[in-house]
Amino acid sequence: MAWTTHKFRKNITDSETGVIRKKWNGRIKVALVYPNTYHVGMSNLGFQAVYELINAFEHVVCERSFLPDDGGSGTTDRITTIESGNPISAFDLIAFSVSYENDYPNLLTILEKAKLPLGFKDRGIPHPLVIAGGVAFFLNPEPLAPFIDCFLIGEAEAILPRFFDTVSHDLLAQDRRSCLHTLARDAPGVYVPSLYKAAYNSDGTLGAFEPISDVPDKVERQYVKDLSRIPTCSPIITPDTIFDSTFLIEVSRGCPHGCRFCGTGFVYRPPRFRPFSLLKECMEQGASKSDKIGLVGAAVSDLPDLNKICGREFERDARISFSSLRADALTPELLSTLKKSKTKTATIAPDAGSERMRNVINKGISETDILNATEQIVAAGIPNLKLYFMVGLPTETMDDVEAIVTLCKKIKHQFLKSSRAKKRMGEITVSLNSFVPKPFTPFQWVKMDDVHLLKEKIKKVKSGLKRVANVRVHADIPRWAYIQALLSRGDRKVAQILSLVNTNQGNWPKTFKSSPINPDFYVLRERSLDELLPWDFIDHGIKKSFLKTEYKRALQGKTSPPCPMESCNICGVCKEKVKKE
User: I need a surface site. Which of 19, 93, 255, 382 has the fewest CB within 10 A?
Assistant: First the structure.
């Protein structure tokens, strides 16, 4: 019996799932697969946007599928789409949309349950072509290279038109290598791993990475230079997702602040904000469908017309929420919006406890900013506060970890002082996350703290705040952060570990014990500045010399100014525009 997607409620309607009905006749059939459950996948704005984008091509029909609710560990032997209920193996293309490295093993689970060979070398006609895209692969697709026919490196709006102009039934009917060669040559942003060869030095580091055919030496990330006419907002409103009945609107891509740990701030350069006129249309559309609107972006606080948008929307009594807020950007208008939305919890991310560490990571906010933000949030009638911190950051000492405790106590004091006037005391939730070095950031060369040390640091924070009333501490699990680092920083050899963990049905300890590949080599090893990195073949436009300079400035505790968001030659992304001028 085919697995049924709609586990949460019976009789879910097409309007609640955003189903697009198109006939298969003569069209290229794409199964768009999110490597997590329906509940998670239907909440992903990017996944839903890609679904609509693909279906906009007249010669293509796209249907969606997800990981079974049992995580793939059950006896279900079919993966089907929600539109037609057909198995994904019956489609011409299977397209994975991946945002998080820890979902990588789920891709193998899905292929296996679809009764498809895992390795691209073992697939051919009539098997579907297996492609993959998403921000995780902007950073580093190599750990999945032996399993995927081709990766799409770039933003969907920029890469899909050329891709589907190139793809045809005749092309798909060719032998697999010829088809992929045509895509790699004619569709910018398409990366075909089988057309590139990796060679290794005797110490295990990457010695060379070169094409073995007439395809580009480097794969250029494709991106939308102007978002002013391209809205991205929820095609569906449903209570059966993480964002319960919320209309989501993407307001921006990228972030100007250049926090040195954050991949988003570098691979989405240059930062781009949608104009007020377009967002106003999106807000009006959202307000007609739901009383809950969520503004999404890495730098929502930096949106030039945020105050205008907030003020206008409350003429219609909509409740508005924000995916992120900076402590130094809480304007009266923004706070008024939060209050009118009956927001119960505001979130700010100091990321580090000491001023020294915030300089190292180039956070750009001071302790004064954080304490002032606390006072403003409570004064606005928001009872609860959530704080994000990281442990394991480069150059971090135990004194820096202790500074997290000290800062939290200062925040609590300010929180209590401001709350007394309201005669109501809410809660402070401290979220501790283990730092994971990411490709294309200034910290791509650093080693990660080992699991034992991360546990020590988490314990120190928890112990320090244990007796502080109304303060709760939640921490991630360091071993999962370790796995994320392995998948984030690995080369093609890490695919052997993924294959083994799939055989072991997700048992990572057993996998690490039996693996011939040492995961510590990728996670706990500091890399030299002249080392060839597994992801160096991707061209984001960022000069490696710029990242090196930022890394050195971090080690010296020096900050750098935000991206000016205009033509310059600092990081290299805008080099073409500078030349033209």
Answer: 19
Report DSSP state, residue 149: S
Residue 402: Cβ within 10 Å count? 16
3-state DSSP call for residue 8?
Answer: coil
Token pair for residue 45?
A: 């704005």
Distance CA 211, CA 181 (A): 11
Between these two residues, 78 and 76, which has the higher pLDDT value? Answer: 78
pLDDT at 414 over 70: yes
Q: Tell me if residue 209 falls in helix, strand or coil.
A: strand
Three-class secondary structure of residue 242 per DSSP: coil
541/267 Cα distance (integer angstroms): 9
pLDDT band at 74; cut points 50, 70, 90: low
Widest pairwise Cα distance in the chain: 73
The dihedral through the CA atoms of 183, 185, 188, 192 has a sign that is positive
- Local structure of 158: helix, strand or coil: helix
Residue by residue, what is the 3-state secondary structure of 67-128? Answer: CCCCCCCCCCCCCECCCCCCEHHHCCEEEEECCCHHHHHHHHHHHHHCCCCCCHHHCCCCCC
Long-range contacts of 508-514 (CB under 8 A, 24+ apart): 508/479, 508/483
Residue 155 and residue 223 in contact, taking contact as beta carbons nearer than 8 Å: yes
What is the value of pTM for the model shown? 0.93
Whole-angstrom distance, CA of residue 368 vs CA of residue 370: 5
145 neighbors 180 (Cβ within 8 angstroms)? no
pLDDT at 4 over 80: no
Given a contact cutoff of 8 angstroms between Cβ atoms, the answer to whether 287 and 313 are in contact is yes
How far is residue 355's CA from residue 181's CA, in Å, rounded to a whole number?
51
- Chain CA centroid to CA 332, Å: 30
By the 8 A CB rule, do 194 and 181 touch? no
H-assigned helices in 94-251: 104-113, 135-139, 156-166, 169-173, 176-186
CA dist., res. 386 & res. 348, Å (int): 6
Task: Report the length, in residues, of the chain.
Answer: 581
DSSP secondary structure letters along 425-436: ---EEEEEEE--
In degrees and rounded to multiples of 5, residue 416 shows phi and psi of: -65, -45
Q: Which helix (H) or strand (E) holds 341?
A: none
DSSP conformation class of 255: -
The amino acid at 371: L
For 360, half-sphere exposure in the C-beta direction (CA atoms, 13 angstrom radius) is 17
Quickly state the pLDDT bin for 6 (edges 50, 70, 90).
very low
Rounded (10°) angle between helices 367-379 and 332-340:
40
Query: What angle (nearest 5°) sits at the alpha carbon of residue 573, between those of residues 570 and 576?
Result: 100
Q: What is the number of other CB atoms lying within 10 angstroms of the CB of residue 104?
A: 28
